[in-house]
Amino acid sequence: MPLEVQIEKRLPEFTLDVTFTCGDEPLSVLGPSGAGKTMLLRCIAGLERARRGRVALGSRVLFDSSKSVHLRPRDRRVGMLFQHFALFPNKTVGENVAFGLQKLPRHEQQQRVTALLERTRIIGVESRYPRQISGGEQQRAALARALAIDPEALLLDEPLSALDTHLRSQMETQLQETFAAYRRPALLVTHNIEEAYRLGERMLVLSRGRVAAFGGKDEIFRRPPSLEVARLTGCKNFSRARMISIGMVEAVDWGCQLRVAHELAAAVTHLGIRAHEIDFVEMNSGAPQENVFPCRLVRSSETPFRVTLYLSLRQSGGATSENSSFDLQAEVTKETFRRIRERPLPWLIQLRPGSIFLLPDESSQQS
Amino acid sequence: MPLTALVVYAAPSVPIDWSPLRISLETSVVATVVTFVAGMATAVWRQRRTGFVSALVDGICLLPLVLPPTVVGFFLLLLFGRNGPLGKLLMRFGATVVFSWPATVIAAAVVAFPLMYLSARAALEQVDSRFFEAARTLGASEWRVFHAVALPLAWPGVLAGTILSFARALGEFGATLMLAGDIPGRTATIPIAIYFAVESDDIQHALTWSAADVAISLALLGGLYYWTHARGRGRWDRR
Fold first, then answer.
1. pTM of the predicted model as reported, rounded to 2 decimal places
2. Residue B1 lies in a domain
3. What is the pLDDT of residue B123?
4. Pairing status of strand A60-64 against strand A256-259
5. Contact B16, B204 (CB under 8 A)
6. How far apart (Å, rounded) are the C-alpha atoms in residues A113 and A96?
7. CATH entry, A3-228, from 1.20.1420.30, 3.40.50.300, 3.30.420.140, 2.40.128.20
8. Span A126-134, mean pLDDT?
9. Residue B82 belongs to a domain
10. How close B234 comes to chain A (CA, Å)?
C-alpha cells in the first residue's frame, strides 16, 4: 500500500510544501537541519496538522484538508521512531514494547513482545528500565515498540544520530534487516549522506521545505538535478559555468576550459565534480587526454584511510604561491597518495567529461 | 520536646470535644480529592494552550492565592447565598450550602486549588512532550496518555501539590468562617475552634488545637520532603 503525501504547512522561516509517493520500500529523506524533515514526519503521523494537503495509505485517507479529514495519531497506525527514542522511562523495556498491544489478552501480549524483541535482537533486557540499557538497546527497543502496533507505515526520525559512531554501522545493519522484512512504506529522515544512501532505496532531498530531488538514489547521486542537490549529496567542487561552444564550457572560478559529455542546457549556471572523481594522471601516457590540468597542492588533510588534497589550478608560483586558496578538493586513498607523491611536479589531474555535473542553480533563480 | 510539653500543659481537665479534629480531617481529605481532580484537569487542559483565554484562566485560578480569604469567602457567600446563582440552583433540589458541612469543603477546596494547579502544571510542563506523542502514535487514548504516561512521570510534583493542598485546606480559616460559620460539631474546624477558644479566653482548648495543627502540618511537610527528596524519584530512575 503506497503512502501518498501532499503537504503544505507554513513554518516560521519557510513553507513546507512537499509532494511524493512512497511505495513498499524504504525512502530516505535527506536534508540539512532545519529543512523541515521532522515536521514532514510529524504531519504524516498526525502530531501536527498541515494547512493544506492530503495524506493517504492506499485507500485509507489519514488527512485531507479539502474534506476536513484529520485522523488522530492513535487512529493512523503509523509507527514513529523518535529521535531520542522517547522510551517511557517509568516502564520496563517489556512494558514499553507492550504499550501499543493493550487490546490483546495478556498472554498474547507476552508472546508478541518476546517475538518483537527477538526480531530486533535484544534479549535479556525485558525487565530492565530504559536508563539501565545501552543506547543501541534503547534504539532496538524503540523500534520493537513502534513495530508492535503492526504499523502500515514506519517513520524514523534520525534513528542513528543519538548513537555512538561504533554503534551506528551495527544499527544500520539492523535497520536494513528490519526494512527487508517490513515491506511497507518506510520513511527515514537523516542529514547524513551515507546513511541516506545505504538505507533508502529511493531518496527525497529536502531543502527549505521544498523537494529538491526525488527518485532513485543512484540517479540522484549520478546526475544531481541542481547545484543545491549536488551540494546536499556531498559534491565538494563547484564553479560558475559559461558556455563556449557545443561540448565546451568555461569553468569561471577555476580559470580553465572543460570538455563536457552532456548537452549544455540554457539553465545551466554551474558545474561540479565530486572529490573522489578527480583522477591523477601521468605525463606522456600516450594519446592526448581531455581536461588534463597541472595543479599545485595547497594543503592536505588526512583521515585514517583517506586523504583530502586541496588543489590550486593556478600556477602563479613565486611569492603568491603561498596563497592558501584552493580550487578543487580531491579525495584519494592513502595508497594512491603515496604513489602520487613520488611523481614529479606539477601533478596532473584529469576532470573526465563524464564525471562533470552541469547544474542549474534553482535557488538563485527563485529568489 | 517543646511540643510534648505544650500538649501536656494544654491537656484539659474537662472532657474534650474532639469534633473539630474530625471535621478538619474530613473536610481536608474531601477538599483535597476535589482539588486534585479539578487542579489536574485544569492543568491538563492548559497544557497545550497559549493565548488570551488560557492566560485569563490562569489569572482566575490563581486569584484565591492572592486575595484575602475573607474576600474569597465573601464571593462564595454571594455565589452560594439565597440569592446567588448557585444558591438558587441548589435550592431547587432543596439543598442549602451556606452554614453546612459541604461549605467547609467548598471553602477549603477553593483556597487550596491554586497550589494544586500550580504544582501540577509545573510538573506536567517538565515532562518531555515526546513521551505523550509516542503514546499517541501507539494508539493510546488521551485518558491513557494521562494516567499511564503523564501522571507517573509528573508524579513527584503532583504529589507535592497534593500535600501542599491538604496542608492549606487544613489551615483554612477566613473563607470557611464566612461561608460555613462556627457550628460546633458540624462546621467548626480546628482553626475556627482555636479562634473562638481564644475569644472566650479558653486558653487550654486553644493550645490543644494549636498543638494538634502544628503536629499534623509538621508530619505532612516532613513527609513531603521525605517522599520528594530523601526517597528519590522511583526505582526506574536509578541506574
1. 0.82
2. no
3. 94
4. unpaired
5. no
6. 9
7. 3.40.50.300
8. 92
9. yes
10. 8
Residue A270 identity: H
- Judge contact between A325 and A231, C-beta under 8 A: no
Nearest by CB to A149, from B139, B141, B235: name it: B139
CB atoms within 10 A of CB B164: 20
Residues A88, B134: C-beta atoms closer than 8 Å: yes
The vertex-B16 CA angle with B12 and B18, nearest 5°, equals 135
pLDDT for res B1? 47
Instruction: State the best of B136, B138, B142 to mutate against chain A, taking most chain A CBs within 10 Å.
Output: B138
Name the residue among A72, A74, A82 with its Cβ closest to that of B130: A82
Q: In what order do the strands lie in the sheet with A328-333?
A: A279-281, A347-350, A292-302, A306-312, A328-333
Query: Going by DSSP bridges, is the β-strand pair A347-350/A328-333 parallel, antiparallel, or unpaired?
Result: unpaired
Residue B235 to chain A, least CA–CA distance (Å):
8
- Sequence spans of domains, chain A: 3-228, 235-367
- Give the DSSP per-residue string, A67-107: GTEE--HHHH-EEEE-TT----TTS-HHHHHHGGGTTS-HH
Bridge partners, residue A202, by sequence: A27, A216
Cell numbers at A197, concatenated: 544512501
For residue B68, the one-letter residue type is: P
Minimum mean pLDDT range among A173-187, A223-237, A295-309, B2-16: B2-16
* pLDDT tens digits, B124-148: 999 999 999 999 999 999 999 999 9
* Least trusted range by pLDDT, from A335-349, B33-47, B96-110, B136-150: A335-349
A97 at B interface, C-beta within 8 A? no
| Interface contact A70, partner B, CB < 8 A | no
- With respect to residue B4, please indicate whether it lies within any of the assigned structural domains: no
Domain span including residue B90: 18-232
Instruction: For B11-30, write each residue's pLDDT tens digit.
Output: 555 667 889 999 999 999 99
Q: How many domains does chain B have?
A: 1
Q: Residue B152's closest chain A neighbor by CA?
A: A90
Tell me which residue of B148, B110, B128, B133 sits closest to B27, measured CA to CA: B110
